[in-house]
Design goal:
This protein has 372 residues and is an alpha/beta fold. The protein has three domains: 20-183, Rossmann fold (3-Layer(aba) Sandwich), CATH 3.40.50.300; 188-261, Helicase, Ruva Protein, domain 3 (Orthogonal Bundle), CATH 1.10.8.60; 267-371, Arc Repressor Mutant, subunit A, CATH 1.10.10. Helix content is 50%, strand content 12%. It has 15 helices and eight strands. It has helices at 23-38, 55-64, 82-92, 104-118, 130-135, 137-150, 189-203, 211-222, 227-243, 251-261, 267-271, 275-288, 296-309, 320-329, 357-371, and strands at 44-48, 70-75, 122-127, 154-160, 179-183, 293-295, 334-339, 346-351. A five-stranded parallel sheet has the order 2-3-4-1-5, with helices on both faces. The chain has a three-stranded antiparallel sheet with strand order 6-8-7. The longest helix has 17 residues, at 227-243. The radius of gyration is 27 Å and the shape is elongated.
Length: 372
Amino acid sequence: MLLVRDPEPLDSSYIPEKINLRSREIKYINQNLVAPLREGKGSTLMAYGNSGVGKTVTAKYIIRENSDLITVYENALSSSSLRQVISDALMKMGRINTVSNIGFDYIFKTMKTLSLEKKKNILLIIDEARNVVRSDPEGFRSLVMASESYGFGLSTMLISIENPMIYVQGDLIRPGYPVFMLKFSPYTRSELFGILKERCDQSLVESAYDDVLIDFIAGIAEQFGSARVAIELLQKAAHLAEYRGGDYVSSDDVRAARAMINPFFTESKLSELDAGELIALLSICKCIGSGIRTNVSCVSRSAAQLREEYSMPRIRNFNLYRILRKLENSGLIESKIIGLGDRRGVNKVIEINDLPVSVLSEKIQSLIERLL
């Protein structure tokens, strides 16, 4: 069954029409980078934060919304120096250079000529900038001071996981020159839910998902605070559901997707468990079934039934809570406290997120059979 009706919103390069959750950051960039640049005043902005928190999508949104500027996006991950990055940007602006190792003087004079010809100021965005700033501090100084030194409108936005300024000595930049810092915070679970809901509505058929599934994915991605992780989980889970011919995206499709993009699960984790611990983990799998989570009461009942099914003798010191702590510490399960609503208090629930429950159950059963 076709579940994905429009794959574009599930692609990592997709730029939404509106980025509501980053409106504060967009306003800050416009005020401190874009607006002064329109008046010919250059400035530099450092945007930093963890992977997947919206830095790149915000930068590309700024590019799309400012067609009155010459805008160039460069990813510096594989570049050896800022000189190379800026030289590549010059080529994207239509100035082909046949001379190797051109100097900054040539680069910025050529940029100025181009800016004057097109009567537009230049906004240069450099992603993954940490390494080139660290390895080329003089190049960084030349870039930051270019607008003032050469007398034309050039502003730069540098994007990095860490604040690139920690690699820059204070005397490299003239005091008072406009260099702004903008930290992107991780997304919260509710924010990830909203992002996923919007992408589901845009890309999937209505019957393929529900709010429970979206919240499950948001809960997994919450530990990273990353929209990129959340969207990639949704994308892969949807395609896995289509591949198996399902009518909807299941929680096991999400677990399989997580195993694909974040493969922390290893066979060695299971091999370290004794019979009682394997029984407890299999009980969790059976209680979850095709759902998302279970509770300790169900696991306790299921463990007792499984010991009988496997004709296992009474296990000494079978302390379920101790076993659950060990399984959680090893990364095989996750536990959460959720509210019951209507002032009924809270409950501790157990989830398995790294591997499809059906696959994990088969592995555990095989190990138990070998032990018996």
